Amino acid sequence: MAAMRALRLAARRPGLGLGRGAAPRRALWGGLRKEEKEVEVEKIPPEEKSEPSLVCPPPRSRSYLPPEDIQSRLLSHVREVFGPSLPSNWQETPLKENRLKYHLLAGLAAELGHTVPNSQLHLMRSAGDVLDFYSTPVKDGSKFDELCTAELPPNLKIIWEQ
C-alpha cells in the first residue's frame, strides 16, 4: 500500500519521468543531435598504396663477447667525456652527472653494439661499474637450450622442438 502511494506521489512531481511534467527521454539521453557534416576524404590512388610487409624480421641477437682491449677502449671514452686530466685510479671516476653518464654509455653502446638495459642504469655509479658490465659476456641461448645440451641424468629427458 505504501509503495502504491509513493508511485502516485512520484507521478505528480514534475521531472521524475512518470507524470505530466516529465522531461522526454531524448532530452536526458542525448537530446537533439546535431547533424553531422560529411567530410570528403582524399582518395589515395591505388598505385601509392603499399602492401604491409608480411615478412617477420630476423630475431635480434643479444649475445655479446667483450673485446680483449675493453679496458683501453673504456679509458679512451672516459677521457673523451671527462677530459684528459683523470686521476691515476680512473675506474673510481663517479658518474653522478646524468649528462656525462649518458655520453659515456651512448658512446660505448655505439662502438661495442651492446647497451646497458634500463633496469641496470642506476647501478652504473662509477667507471669501474661500467667496466664490469662491459667485461661480462652474454649468451644468446635460453635456459631450455642449455638444458637440452647439458648432460642430464638417465631418468630425465627433455624434448625441445624448434
How does this model look, in words?
The chain is mainly α and 162 residues long. Helices cover 36% and strands 0% of the residues. The protein has 6 helices and no strands. The protein has helices at 2-12, 25-28, 70-82, 98-112, 127-135, 143-149. The longest helix is centred in the middle third of the chain and has 15 residues, at 98-112. The termini are far apart.
Strand content is under 5%
- Give me the number of helical elements: 6
What is the CA-based Rg, rounded? 35 Å
Terminal CA distance reads 75 Å
The residue-averaged pLDDT reads: 77
Helix content: 25-40%
Number of strands: 0
**Form type:** extended
Query: Which stretches are low in confidence, meaning pLDDT under 50 for 5 or more residues running?
Result: none
Characteristic key phrases:
162 residues; 0% strand; mainly alpha; 6 helices
Brief description of this entry?
This protein has helices spanning 2-12, 25-28, 70-82, 98-112, 127-135, 143-149. With 162 residues, the protein is mainly α. The longest helix has 15 residues, at 98-112.
